């Protein structure tokens, strides 16, 4: 049973065979988070008109009708026509519909859609109190998120919180389960910061060492599940005998950006490696070399893109082999309450 309204909330899935459509309908945002992954050079700066949003949703619904769709930005609630997009997603038959928000909930979005139309509202929160969260996400964002969560829970929406773990906030993670339980949040997603967008150049934001991660994250996940939430978290550091899989081969995720780039792997998003693109409202495959060719590489370090863009989290033993293989960031553990 969820901590909030007792329902099993349907939303994004991070499993083998899962199908997710991450749709960035704009890149504008009212915040300027230190670890923001949006890169205007790679993703564009457009706000897609509603007719284009509908046409692109049709493309991906036709490709895989049972996908989960997640509306993102930038801040997607800045788009005045987001309620129309949500309704069209339901009309297309998407399995679940989620809005990812920084909590400011512009254009009175929760008054303009209903819990029947929208499966989940997902809030980004990176600290258990205002000073820690706002240092990363901007002044006032903690209060805005808590206010937004309370409003969403009271109105009967399914809710989730995404906490992005970095060296700057790992110490805050153990306090999150109690906070989220008190707010009535249904689902808790723990994710690891990736070195992309601003976090690729922001020295304050680093990845956590393997021993710290393995010591703390699974324990916090278990506590959150005991408190009634469904918890999703990445293992990150695989033991040598654990199987490694790349979601680019075993799942079907697409990350759509307003400039028409469509990636299958989020770690590729700073680079022109997208395997698909939308041109004139048509989806087409791009010729090699793209991320697709990288998915086929088999290396002792596990994830190829991790090895290329953030090798600092790989530790090698005396024999020259990595102590851990790095797991795919799109394939995660799930604890059901
Ligand atoms: S709320 Fe999201 S899109 Fe906006 S600055 Fe923060 S990470 Fe970037
Ligand atoms: S993060 Fe690594 S393992 Fe996952 S899809 Fe990308 S390249 Fe594959």
Automatic annotation (TrEMBL):
- Cross-referenced Pfam families: Radical_SAM
Whether Metal-binding counts among this entry's keywords is: yes
Q: Which domain of life is it from?
A: Bacteria
| Keywords assigned | Iron, Iron-sulfur, Metal-binding, S-adenosyl-L-methionine
Glycosyltransferase: present as a keyword of the record?
Answer: no
In this chain the Radical SAM core domain maps to 13-241
Q: Which PANTHER family match?
A: PQQA PEPTIDE CYCLASE, RADICAL SAM DOMAIN PROTEIN
Q: What is this protein called?
A: Radical SAM protein
